[in-house]
Amino acid sequence: MIRPDLSLPIPETITSAHFIGVGGSGMSGLARMFLDRGIRVSGSDRADSAALRDLAARGAIVHVGHDAAHLGDADTVVHTGAIWPENPEFVMAKERGLHVIHRSQALHWLIGGRRLVSVAGAHGKTTSTGMIVTALRALQVDPTFVNGGVIADLGASSGTGSDELFVIEADESDGTFLLYDTSVALITNVDPDHLDHYGSREAFDAAFARFADAAREAVVVSADDPGARAVTARLTHRTVVTFGEDPRADVRLTDVRTDGPVAFTLTAGGESVPVQLRVPGAHNAVNAAGAVAVLRVLGHGLAESARAVEEFGGTVRRFELHGVERGVSVYDDYAHHPTEVAAALSAARTVVGEGRIIAIQQPHTYSRTQEMYREFAEVLEALADHTVMLDVFGAREDPVPGVTGELVSNAFHDPGHVHYVPDWQEAADYTARIARPGDYVITLGCGNVYQIIPQVLEALSRTEAAAV
């Protein structure tokens, strides 16, 4: 892993940029925006993808695989923290003395002093960012935006707008959210994560407090999340707006109903409005409350903000239906932290009816798995009817002896609720055997677990359900 060096200078002018790891939703979104600015763009990734093909269609030069020759005439190289220091393109860029900047610095360059809404938090920030962007467009505001996931109705994770407003998902995982000159900060929650970077919960909370207090206009923060409340207690900001089910919240959430797409009531400033979203899950009611609170800070009324948020149709890899085979619905969700897994499974439970939930879990990173395997097992055992456990997706980390999917499965109290299957085809076949019409299968993880879905659908098509 390459930790971002935010002290490195950001060039004033960029004419040709090369993106290492351009296939990710965040990086491809940045690359599209560079193209929108008339900048020559090239990029590489380890595998072909729809994102690479889309960039090529827009005029970028893209490569599958990494090679120093791919740099071409680039004057600036943009990278993520997920690449290895030995990456040949990264090494050559350093040797040639090019500007080598982290993706957060590239985003900072794109923002360029515009009025910025930054959405941060351990969970929910991609959905919350998508809600804000969708609602602003419904309110006839045309913001520029960069999100960590594709907004389903827009088919993109980024877009160049005509108004002064810029909306971003701000990444707290490596501290880069402190780089931006934020006007309005939204904190969805402060659940401890990424302690491999911060070292302690105290440092994690302190970073969020710095992020919030630096906001030039206002801080919007959860009134319910214990971590967010702890951060709020540290703030010195003059304008703090809270949201949630807490009776003291400035934008209060009540009457949450989850029997289908979530419905609820929002109250603020003595006014109450009913809201019906297009997406399920009580967690999305909370996300919507935060988005409406931001819209009110930006000058929009409660009722019009609520109606605008109702337009949100979800983001890719957030409880996304991929297919139905033999009466079994197969979904995918990006959830990779116990809290996120709980939210995804709880949302599924509200709409599955009499069917069962079969989770296919791919733990993400060895450090998180080693630290939280008991919490993962507890959530999965409580909220899924059965779990098919894959092995760890290591991402940027080297393997840790003894830290596998089996570590999670062994932590289940009832071994009959989980099956550890490191081989993907065997996992797909096993899932198909135990699935019955009406069941939901949901893949969980922010690695490549979604790639097992075609195997699951194919296995369902040719396999009869076992008597389980």
From TrEMBL:
<dbReference type="GO" id="GO:0008763">
    <property type="term" value="F:UDP-N-acetylmuramate-L-alanine ligase activity"/>
</dbReference>
<keyword id="KW-0573">Peptidoglycan synthesis</keyword>
<dbReference type="InterPro" id="IPR013221">
    <property type="entry name" value="Mur_ligase_cen"/>
</dbReference>
<keyword id="KW-0961">Cell wall biogenesis/degradation</keyword>
<keyword id="KW-0963">Cytoplasm</keyword>
<feature type="domain" description="Mur ligase central">
    <location>
        <begin position="119"/>
        <end position="294"/>
    </location>
</feature>
<dbReference type="InterPro" id="IPR036615">
    <property type="entry name" value="Mur_ligase_C_dom_sf"/>
</dbReference>
<dbReference type="Pfam" id="PF02875">
    <property type="entry name" value="Mur_ligase_C"/>
</dbReference>
<dbReference type="InterPro" id="IPR004101">
    <property type="entry name" value="Mur_ligase_C"/>
</dbReference>
<keyword id="KW-0133">Cell shape</keyword>
<keyword id="KW-0436">Ligase</keyword>
<comment type="similarity">
    <text>Belongs to the MurCDEF family.</text>
</comment>
<dbReference type="InterPro" id="IPR050061">
    <property type="entry name" value="MurCDEF_pg_biosynth"/>
</dbReference>
<keyword id="KW-0067">ATP-binding</keyword>
<feature type="domain" description="Mur ligase C-terminal">
    <location>
        <begin position="317"/>
        <end position="447"/>
    </location>
</feature>
<dbReference type="InterPro" id="IPR000713">
    <property type="entry name" value="Mur_ligase_N"/>
</dbReference>
<keyword id="KW-0132">Cell division</keyword>
<feature type="binding site">
    <location>
        <begin position="121"/>
        <end position="127"/>
    </location>
    <ligand>
        <name>ATP</name>
    </ligand>
</feature>
<protein>
    <recommendedName>
        <fullName>UDP-N-acetylmuramate--L-alanine ligase</fullName>
        <ecNumber>6.3.2.8</ecNumber>
    </recommendedName>
</protein>
<comment type="pathway">
    <text>Cell wall biogenesis; peptidoglycan biosynthesis.</text>
</comment>
<dbReference type="Pfam" id="PF01225">
    <property type="entry name" value="Mur_ligase"/>
</dbReference>
<keyword id="KW-0547">Nucleotide-binding</keyword>
<dbReference type="InterPro" id="IPR005758">
    <property type="entry name" value="UDP-N-AcMur_Ala_ligase_MurC"/>
</dbReference>
<keyword id="KW-0131">Cell cycle</keyword>
<dbReference type="Pfam" id="PF08245">
    <property type="entry name" value="Mur_ligase_M"/>
</dbReference>
<dbReference type="InterPro" id="IPR036565">
    <property type="entry name" value="Mur-like_cat_sf"/>
</dbReference>
<feature type="domain" description="Mur ligase N-terminal catalytic">
    <location>
        <begin position="18"/>
        <end position="112"/>
    </location>
</feature>
<comment type="function">
    <text>Cell wall formation.</text>
</comment>
